[in-house]
Amino acid sequence: xxxxxxxxxxxxxxxxxxxxxxxxxxxxxxxxxxxxxxxxxxxxxxxxxxxxxxxxxxxxxxxxxxxxxxxxxxxxxxxxxxxxxxxxxxxxxxxxxxxxxxxxxxxxxxxxxxxxxxxxxxxxxxxxxxxxxxxxxxxxxxxxxxxxxxxxxxxxxxxxxxxxxxxxxxxxxxxxxxxxxxxxxxxxxxxxxxxxxxxxxxxxxxxxxxxxxxxxxxxxxxxxxxxxxxxxxxxxxxxxxxxxxxxxxxxxxxxxxxxxxxxxxxxxxxxxxxxxxxxxxxxxxxxxxxxxxxxxxxxxxxxxxxxxxxxxxxxxxxxxxxxxxxxxxxxxxxxxxxxxxxxxxxxxxxxxxxxxxxxxxxxxxxxxxxxxxxxxxxxxxxxxxxxxxxxxxxxxxxxxxxxxxxxxxxxxxxxxxxxxxxxxxxxxxxxxxxxxxxxxxxxxxxxxxxxxxxxxxxxxxxxxxxxxxxxxxxxxxxxxxxxxxxxxxxxxxxxxxxxxxxxxxxxxxxxxxxxxxxxxxxxxxxxxxxxxxxxxxxxxxxxxxxxxxxxxxxxxxxxxxxxxxxxxxxxxxxxxxxxxxxxxxxxxxxxxxxxxxxxxxxxxxxxxx
Length: 609
Prior knowledge:
Elements: H1 4-19, E1 37-42, H2 57-63, E2 71-73, E3 79-81, E4 84-89, E5 95-100, E6 105-107, E7 113-116, H3 119-130, H4 139-142, H5 148-152, E8 164-168, E9 171-175, H6 183-186, H7 197-203, E10 220-226, E11 230-235, E12 249-254, H8 258-267, E13 273-276, H9 278-286, E14 294-296, E15 303-308, H10 320-327, H11 330-339, H12 342-346, E16 369-370, E17 373-374, H13 381-385, H14 392-405, E18 414-421, H15 425-442, E19 447-454, H16 459-464, E20 471-476, H17 508-518, H18 522-538, E21 542-547, E22 552-555, H19 586-607
Parallel strand pairs: 1-12, 18-19
Antiparallel strand pairs: 2-3, 4-5, 5-9, 6-7, 8-9, 10-11, 11-12, 13-22, 14-22, 15-20, 15-21, 16-17
Organism: Solibacillus palustris
InterPro entries: Peptide/Ni-bd (IPR030678), SBP_5 (IPR039424), SBP_5_CS (IPR023765), SBP_5_dom (IPR000914)
Subcellular location: Cell membrane
């Protein structure tokens, strides 16, 4: 029960959110007075509406529009009241108290009132999630609550000992396992959403199987739910914040070839947005009648990096012990770090604006800030953030130093096993580019890159987790608003490259991370995490590469109106969004993005005052 399923779900969530960035009008359809309708096609059917159980994006993306949680985010990523009007942590952020909004109703799919939304609904929701027999896919997140893990594992059987309590009808209290200053961001996950306990008990296993076996307190109601045909969401007229719901109807039409047919359906005016695959991108960008319909997609917060393996388990013919000797030399690692031309590699994904996806750090820009200052420009991380790691002169300098230091210890050229997923043509192409580029710069006398086509299915289990690589392209996604979420792959017992086994590592990174985690004050905490991340990169235990997302879409949605959050389900909400009269061109997108980034910086600075 760890994060792999949810990580994959989150990755697909961001992809789908981008495609779901494809249709809506503002309030009414232009000046015609018609209700706004957002239309899209889909091929991945949802199996359940039970948001307390699922971690599949296409399922909780629907639920996010039907049920509200305690908090939400505005379009700049500033936390806003949701079903909680206010909240207060104690001094060490181990106890959080929420005052709920009064008068919010649970309604059925016809809008008929069923019950009030009260504090006990959040207790009942968490009880369901942490009951192991319900097999909730997001239960592991909820174990941040005191005794949550013990209850899940059966070590505690009385749920009243779990750290969630309804103090009174509209006061909710969480007691956590330890100091958690970022707890608010975790409430953006469906495992912390409320449920009407009486209704849940009545429906049992049928809860969430139909539009009728579900209660709503969110912006929309599920008016029609016909699997492999159509589902339709309509505005909830009883919603507490209905004035900020501008799209009246959301219509999902099933098409098993949705990804293929969507661009043509968009051109015919039958849907309001589509992803434009690279196979037809040139055609669209070079056609006078299409070029202004397409724009770049918004980046997400998956971080991509090249991990170097300090516990190699690949075949003997590729000399794993020799690799182990070489990679334990800092100059050898630094030669690879400075030799990797990330722009050349990124051209295989983004042929027009590759720099827009590059990242010099593990934690992406705009993820978290300290009093309006982005985490990635805190010292000593600032110098890394602002400097391209690719540097031919430094690469050669470190190569020469490594060859001198390793003379008589390692055999050159060092074989570097670089696997890729054979099911991804782009990954295969990128690996070939990296092979040629590194060998050409560093020389065949120094490294011999051995490409390895791993299986299309089960790649993680058969290649990456067993350590059958010297260097590998890997990724990681965030779970909450704290830099600690990006440390998991690299601390002792992590899932990637076992840096704790490296000579010279000496547990330094783990010590820095633990010190940062123990700090409650956010400003000091982030400074300590920045110090830890800078150490990891400066020692070249990892080579930061890029962020996820990218690609191109034709869309009538303005991506800078949607609620902004790198984690959880906020980004799946249609609340606050409106449909443009015409799609945003790429020039308009870049201009809007520049303005949004400035506005966001101001909003974050104001929020921290």
